[in-house]
Automatic annotation (TrEMBL):
SUPFAM superfamilies: Class I glutamine amidotransferase-like (SSF52317). Residues 65-202 form the Glutamine amidotransferase domain. It comes from the Eukaryota. InterPro entries: ChyE-like, Class_I_gatase-like, GATASE. One of its GO terms (cellular component) is cytosol. The lineage of its organism: Eukaryota, Viridiplantae, Streptophyta, Embryophyta, Tracheophyta. Belongs to the peptidase C26 family. Coiled coil: none annotated. This is Homoserine O-succinyltransferase.
Length: 230
């Protein structure tokens, strides 16, 4: 399936978000859906953005891929180590995009599925859920490489995950870690980056998501209070 929703049609660089989950009603009502959240964070004037609902089996047609400069792979309720058909199809696409040296950014599930596509290993987080604002620590090489940006040694980021990258893909580099997660950010070459946290989330999106997890009994009330006091 192809097409997807289009945000702007100006001539310039072309990007797409590969959505790996359905928009909660709250996010649609308040923020216009995750696609608009990502475009608000990453989009720049003159760019065109499309969205493909990867979890529904909707991916850019092979003949259209070369037209794109890059792709963002979103979070998901699914496991990146799973073998659902849409996940296998997404892996095949990502492998092709990596070989074409397209710019790729994976967030949470996207971070994990990118790692898997590159030959890394993912699975359940060994220290359980990480929910709330987590302090991550950029590596010394990352701080040195981006010295012009004056990156601090501690960075807060919103997290909401119970899976993680277990083993880094060959030739990839860890850019940041935290007390709970050894691979918070990784890069592969100069065109692929995975981020375990959610730079696109706002506080209200996080609190809504926590409420949904409580309703589904995926986390317990004591976990909720530990988040508040984190």
């Amino acid at each position: 399936m192809g097409g997807g929703y289009r945000e702007g049609e100006a001539e310039g660089r072309l990007f797409a978000v590969l959505l790996c989950a359905e928009d909660p009603e709250y996010v649609k009502k308040v923020h216009g859906g995750y696609f608009k959240v990502f475009v608000s964070l990453l989009g720049e004037e003159g760019e065109t953005w499309h969205v493909f609902h990867a979890s529904r089996g909707e991916l850019p047609p092979a003949e259209d891929v070369d037209a794109y400069d890059g792709f963002v792979i979103s979070g998901s309720c699914s496991d990146a180590h799973g073998d659902d058909q849409w996940i296998c199809d997404l892996l095949s696409l990502l492998e092709a995009l990596v070989s074409k040296k397209k710019q790729l950014l994976g967030v949470c599930f996207g971070h994990q599925i990118l790692s898997r596509a590159l030959g890394g290993k993912t699975g359940r987080a060994k220290r359980g859920w990480d929910i709330g604002v987590t302090c991550i620590h950029p590596s010394h090489s990352t701080i040195k490489q981006f010295s012009s940006l004056d990156i601090p040694s501690h960075l807060p980021i919103i997290e909401c995950h119970r899976d993680e990258v277990w083993e880094l893909p060959p030739n990839a580099q860890v850019m940041a870690q935290s007390e709970k997660t050894s691979i918070e950010i990784f890069k592969y070459g100069n065109h692929v980056m995975g981020i375990q946290g959610h730079p696109e989330y706002t506080k209200d999106i996080l609190m809504h998501l926590i409420g949904r997890l409580l309703q589904l009994n995926l986390i317990q009330v004591r976990c909720y209070y530990s988040i508040l006091w984190k």
